[in-house]
Structure prediction request, 307 residues.
Amino acid sequence: MRFSFFTALSAVASLGHALPSKLQTRDVSTSELNQFDFWVQYAAATYYIENYDAQVGDKISCSKGNCPEVEKTGATVFYDFSNTTITDTAGFIAVDHTNAAVVLAFRGSYSVRNWISDVTFIHTIPGLCDGCLAELGFWSSWALIRDDIIKELKDAVSQNPDYELVVVGHSLGAAVATLAAADLRGKGYPSAKLYAYASPRVANAVLAKYITAQGNNYRFTHTNDPVPKLPLLSMGYVHVSPEYWITSPNNATVSTSDIKVIEGDISFDGNTGTGLPLLTDFDAHGWYFVPVDAGKGPGLPFKRGLI
Prediction:
């Protein structure tokens, strides 16, 4: 399914008029880089069934070694979710005492139901602001689990009142994380931080500007990764700003000078300017500081346990 999807879209031009953008020539700081490298490891951990189908109190772990810094913190699962909705939204809430954080982490695409959410390129009204439109599959992935997540977050935060809320995800998980963070900021968590790695476009211009204005958004792209180029600009979707464009190649250690900070909901200075979303570029999608989706299970199941 993934192959036919990207092959078809590769032949379609990404239309749209560029809005004013600005390429920031400054390097990110070492402390920023360390944060970026750390939080992606929570996104990596979501691909392991041991973490999104866990027992309360289980320690977050990655058997393939791609979340070592998270493992060092001893972070534990407070709530896990998967396989309960038509979208198969999966992930966990974790409590990280080392970093004084409650972490809401969403898994990227794994099941057939996830891929259906990925390609539902229809706008819906999320009710976040006047004129706001979101991608139906991504918004549904959040909306179907929102009540349960908010209930569990309330408990996690009440037990750790001085902890910050961090929302993370990779790929589909980043799209869901973006909309979840935007929603949660209006529901009692105004300072929630978002770390979105390889997110597709999730919003029309009005919603993108609304989320951008909330602040605390860290959205990452990598070289010519095709996923952040979707849905196409011609479909009425744009990105949350700013973009942190990683220019180092796959499997390379990222330095501060390898990340360019780009402002604007449409900009051709970063990932969007590297060409059409091609299947041949998909290798760039899996490497964001670490091999993020290395913990993903085999095959393309409709639901967990069925191939």
